[in-house]
């Protein structure tokens, strides 16, 4: 067994369904098994989480997949060498539209119901009508400028040539999404669980499609930490990755996911009801109060046993994210992208070291513990 | 996208400054407003916000934003810098947690200043003064750096285009430069853009020849 140089770790997370691996690793004692004493610190805002990680107040954190790249490029904050040795989850986002917008869509398209997953062209008539009548543009919210949510919403609209300038995009933290939708501050949002389900349960929105309907199996959340921290504490990082990988594997079985949902409800974690958290963990997407849920087996993926490398930060995935940042116009002209950027940020080498370590230890996966 | 009047970011030292204070703790906010009563700072307080924040920023056009770092609204400020083409603002953050000292030490940018410890009404004014000063210094540096970088880049492409023209069209250096300048003037383009077009055109021609 390796000995972590620094056993006491502060790990930041945002209350979301896909923070499950962090919470499971803590609750089921996987961190302890690897000699770590981890404190989970709930954060309200992605920007604050990022600043704290840069400053070393957090040793590591759950991050949006494009965030370490944005950090390396100094977008939105001074540059910092953030690396990611582990992908924590895939998929898991969804686009929810307000009840008001849904009614407008039905009326403008002269239809009685919307087929799910909803095609963005149904929005086109609403966008055009609002433009013609000089009404306010539709407002959509995502959770952070450098997020898959933002690129997914963009891709969804772009696919049917809804002009991006004809809608407004806002950043709203996940915890405030449902309230904003309810107040009519926004007409729709793209966010991870449990917030889509929460809006549906509250009867204020319809989940039109999940991120899986837009892109399949792209990294959503990753583990982020400073390169400097890894240089000083390589064993701590391996132990952290191993414990989280173990939690991801544990989350593969359905009974375990039920148990995870129960743990996530806790006040110190998501502080939400079981009927809001459980569905998306079990591959079920709540759509509307009057409609049956959709079955999306890949909703919130943490690990797949027949494809063991979804937790590996693959360079091609990173390059792909950079392309989206460029295409969204997020890289200012004075910022140049170094050719080896992704190889510095995404670190499959650390992931492979951790895999070897786990094999050496003969760690049993998929077993129910605790 | 927020519609915003482009405002000068260089804040003069005597004019009145609008502050947007975002704090859910009303009591704390009131004490800050009182402490700044007779200064050049004019405070608008926002207790509970959600999407309203962006509207407020648009209306108030604050010169400084003061926010509790634990506030979820911190993310919305992020969109001011990125999604919209809003002028950056000095953002002063405070937190009652001890660990902000580390943040204070390590955030080098003048855009965000983290304040150590809970915000103390007595200390608010000097903190704001310092934030404004740092913000100005940071932006001056950043503007200069960007200008220099840009000049360097544009000179590089002009030189390269000139060299390519000299080689392929057997021009003298002076002829090459004049021909580029004439094209720029005739077509109403920047010299730099003409140079870039020439480079990409000549390069694609060269590649075409290689395949022949």
Automatic annotation (TrEMBL), chain A:
<keyword id="KW-0813">Transport</keyword>
<keyword id="KW-0547">Nucleotide-binding</keyword>
<dbReference type="InterPro" id="IPR044527">
    <property type="entry name" value="NrtA/CpmA_ABC-bd_dom"/>
</dbReference>
<dbReference type="GO" id="GO:0005524">
    <property type="term" value="F:ATP binding"/>
</dbReference>
<dbReference type="Pfam" id="PF13379">
    <property type="entry name" value="NMT1_2"/>
</dbReference>
<protein>
    <submittedName>
        <fullName>Bicarbonate transport ATP-binding protein CmpC</fullName>
        <ecNumber>3.6.3.-</ecNumber>
    </submittedName>
</protein>
<keyword id="KW-0378">Hydrolase</keyword>
<keyword id="KW-0472">Membrane</keyword>
<keyword id="KW-0067">ATP-binding</keyword>
<dbReference type="GO" id="GO:0016787">
    <property type="term" value="F:hydrolase activity"/>
</dbReference>
<keyword id="KW-0997">Cell inner membrane</keyword>
<keyword id="KW-1003">Cell membrane</keyword>
<dbReference type="GO" id="GO:0012505">
    <property type="term" value="C:endomembrane system"/>
</dbReference>
UniProtKB/TrEMBL annotation, chain B:
<dbReference type="Pfam" id="PF00072">
    <property type="entry name" value="Response_reg"/>
</dbReference>
<dbReference type="InterPro" id="IPR001789">
    <property type="entry name" value="Sig_transdc_resp-reg_receiver"/>
</dbReference>
<dbReference type="Pfam" id="PF03861">
    <property type="entry name" value="ANTAR"/>
</dbReference>
<feature type="domain" description="Response regulatory">
    <location>
        <begin position="18"/>
        <end position="132"/>
    </location>
</feature>
<feature type="domain" description="ANTAR">
    <location>
        <begin position="138"/>
        <end position="199"/>
    </location>
</feature>
<dbReference type="InterPro" id="IPR011006">
    <property type="entry name" value="CheY-like_superfamily"/>
</dbReference>
<dbReference type="InterPro" id="IPR008327">
    <property type="entry name" value="Sig_transdc_resp-reg_antiterm"/>
</dbReference>
<dbReference type="GO" id="GO:0003723">
    <property type="term" value="F:RNA binding"/>
</dbReference>
<dbReference type="GO" id="GO:0000160">
    <property type="term" value="P:phosphorelay signal transduction system"/>
</dbReference>
<dbReference type="InterPro" id="IPR005561">
    <property type="entry name" value="ANTAR"/>
</dbReference>
<feature type="modified residue" description="4-aspartylphosphate">
    <location>
        <position position="68"/>
    </location>
</feature>
<protein>
    <submittedName>
        <fullName>Putative transcriptional regulatory protein pdtaR</fullName>
    </submittedName>
</protein>
<dbReference type="InterPro" id="IPR036388">
    <property type="entry name" value="WH-like_DNA-bd_sf"/>
</dbReference>
<keyword id="KW-0597">Phosphoprotein</keyword>
């Amino acid at each position: 067994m390796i000995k972590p140089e620094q056993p006491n770790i502060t790990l930041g997370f945002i209350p979301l369904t896909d923070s499950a691996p962090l919470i499971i690793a803590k609750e089921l004692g996987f961190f302890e098994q690897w000699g770590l004493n981890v404190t989970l610190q709930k954060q309200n805002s992605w920007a604050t989480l990022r600043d704290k990680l840069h400053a070393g107040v957090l040793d590591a954190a759950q991050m949006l997949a494009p965030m370490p790249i944005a950090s390396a490029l100094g977008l939105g904050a001074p540059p910092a060498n953030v690396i990611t040795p582990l992908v924590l989850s895939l998929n898991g986002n969804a686009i929810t539209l307000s009840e008001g917008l849904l009614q407008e869509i039905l009326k403008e398209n002269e239809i009685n119901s919307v087929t799910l997953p909803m095609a963005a062209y149904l929005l086109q008539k609403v966008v055009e009508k609002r433009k013609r009548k000089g009404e306010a543009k539709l407002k959509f919210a995502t959770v952070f400028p450098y997020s898959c949510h933002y690129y997914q919403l963009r891709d969804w609209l772009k696919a049917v040539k809804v002009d991006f300038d004809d809608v407004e995009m806002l950043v709203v933290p996940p915890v405030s999404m449902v309230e904003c939708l309810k107040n009519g501050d926004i007409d729709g949002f793209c966010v991870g669980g449990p917030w889509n389900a929460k809006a549906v349960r509250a009867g204020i929105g319809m989940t039109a499609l999940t991120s899986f309907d837009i892109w399949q199996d792209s990294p959503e959340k990753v583990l982020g930490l400073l390169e400097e921290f890894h240089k000083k504490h390589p064993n701590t990082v391996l132990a952290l990755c191993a414990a989280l990988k173990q939690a991801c594997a544990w989350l593969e079985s359905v009974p375990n996911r039920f148990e995870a949902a129960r743990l996530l409800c806790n006040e110190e974690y998501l502080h939400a009801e079981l009927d809001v958290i459980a569905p998306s963990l079990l591959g079920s997407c709540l759509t509307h109060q009057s409609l049956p849920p959709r079955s999306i087996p890949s909703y919130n993926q943490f690990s797949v046993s027949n494809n063991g490398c979804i937790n590996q930060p693959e360079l091609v995935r990173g390059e792909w994210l950079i392309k989206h940042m460029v295409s969204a116009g997020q890289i200012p002209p004075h910022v140049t992208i170094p050719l080896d950027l992704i190889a510095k940020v995404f670190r499959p080498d650390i992931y492979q070291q951790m895999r070897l370590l786990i094999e050496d230890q003969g760690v049993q996966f998929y077993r129910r513990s605790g | 996208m927020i519609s915003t009047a482009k405002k000068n970011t260089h804040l003069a030292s005597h004019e009145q400054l609008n502050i947007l204070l975002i704090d859910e703790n009303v009591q704390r906010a009131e004490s800050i407003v009182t402490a700044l009563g007779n200064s050049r700072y004019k405070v608008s307080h926002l207790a509970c916000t959600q999407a309203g924040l962006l509207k407020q920023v648009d209306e108030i056009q604050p010169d400084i934003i003061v926010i509790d770092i634990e506030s979820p609204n911190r993310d919305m400020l992020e969109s001011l810098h990125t999604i919209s083409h809003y002028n950056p603002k000095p953002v002063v953050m405070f937190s009652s947690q001890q660990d902000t000292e580390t943040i204070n030490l390590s955030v080098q940018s003048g855009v965000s200043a983290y304040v150590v410890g809970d915000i103390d009404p007595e200390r608010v004014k000097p903190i704001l003064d310092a934030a404004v000063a740092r913000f100005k210094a940071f932006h001056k540096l950043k503007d200069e750096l960007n200008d220099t970088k840009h000049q360097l880049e544009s000179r590089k492409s002009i030189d390269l285009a000139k060299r390519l023209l000299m080689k392929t069209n057997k021009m003298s250096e002076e002829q090459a430069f004049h021909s580029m300048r004439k094209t720029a003037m005739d077509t109403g383009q920047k010299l730099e853009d003409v140079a870039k077009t020439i480079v990409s055109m000549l390069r694609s021609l060269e590649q075409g020849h290689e395949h022949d």
